[in-house]
Design brief:
By secondary structure, this protein is an alpha+beta fold. It folds into two domains: 148 residues, D-Maltodextrin-Binding Protein, domain 2 (3-Layer(aba) Sandwich), CATH 3.40.190.10; 100 residues, D-Maltodextrin-Binding Protein, domain 2 (3-Layer(aba) Sandwich). Helices cover 36% and strands 23% of the residues. The protein has twelve helices and 14 strands. A five-stranded mixed beta sheet has the order 10-9-11-8-12, sandwiched between helices. The chain has a four-stranded antiparallel beta sheet with strand order 6-13-7-14, with helices on both faces. The longest helix has 16 residues. It is globular. This is Transporter substrate-binding domain-containing protein.
Length: 278
């Protein structure tokens, strides 16, 4: 694809273009801005190249419809800011949260669950709640800035921050590297995110078999999918994109993508199809 005038090299290389259906053109009459951050195999950023489960989905939609998705790599915290200020039309690979609901319409793609993840002593008693994590004074919590897994998650971060036991990092790779250096560090995120990040990093791949995943009773199953901006999207464009994403969800495309990228033992407690009740 030729570089469009006025678009820098990174954006141009990450753009997805198509040309079909005149009917779709009536609803998709401009490029869709999709900033992304690294999220396991859901979104993989390799220099100027963006790939993974959700970029594959956007490419598939672009083959069928007359839309162009401009996919731009940004840090997670900046992605959230762009979304909240109406400068992003869509965010992908996002868990549903009360705060994000204020700014956009959520389209669920799969069920997901965040868990405590560690590389430490397997003989440690299992964590059952966030209170158990807080009570263990030997551990620090390392999390990605901008991630949101609900009230229990934020309350734990706030409580541990008061004890100087929280580290905020820009992406899952940085979290994994800290955990490798400090075995008592733990994180909370959907397991596929950190597993996927470690798959892509030769310095961390040897630790994949050492990951320990622990579900927490007060952090139940939720949903993961895409948000469409209430601010930036025109009504016709919003309706078109919502319909396209819903068709993708109903086909189970995202869960099939996860199954192609991850081993079953990682998926069984972290990712489920929408039609499977937790």
């Amino acid at each position: 694809m030729k570089n469009p005038a006025g678009i820098n090299r990174r954006v141009a290389m990450a753009s997805v273009g198509i040309s079909m259906s005149g009917l779709a053109w009536a609803h998709c009459n401009r490029a869709i801005q999709v900033p992304v951050s690294a999220t396991g195999q859901s979104v993989v950023i390799d220099g100027d190249t963006v790939r993974g489960i959700y970029p594959d989905i956007l490419k598939a939609i672009s083959v069928k419809e007359n839309c162009r998705f401009v996919v731009t790599p940004v840090p997670r915290a900046r992605l959230e800011k762009l979304y909240e200020t109406g400068k992003a039309d869509m965010i992908v690979a996002s868990t549903r949260s009360v705060r994000r609901d204020e700014f956009g319409v959520f389209v669920p793609m799969v069920r997901s669950r965040a868990m405590v993840i560690s590389l430490g002593d397997m003989q440690r008693a299992a964590f059952r709640t966030t209170q158990d994590v807080l009570n263990n004074k030997e551990v620090r919590l390392v999390v990605v800035r901008g991630y949101d897994y609900g009230s229990a998650y934020h309350e734990l971060i706030e409580a541990m921050a008061k004890e100087n036991r929280v580290l905020l990092e820009a992406d899952p790779n940085a979290v994994a590297r800290l955990m490798k250096t400090n075995p008592n560090d733990v994180t909370i995120m959907v397991p596929t995110i950190i597993y996927g990040a470690m798959q892509e990093d030769a310095r961390l791949a040897d630790l994949l078999d050492k990951l320990r995943f622990e579900p927490l009773d007060n952090m139940p199953w939720g949903e993961s999918g895409v948000y469409l901006s209430k601010t930036s999207l025109e009504p016709g464009l919003m309706k078109f994109l919502q319909s396209a994403m819903q068709r993708t969800a109903q086909a189970g495309t995202v869960h099939k993508g996860f199954a192609a990228y991850y081993p079953p033992q990682v998926l069984k407690d972290s990712i489920r199809p929408l039609d499977k009740t937790p």
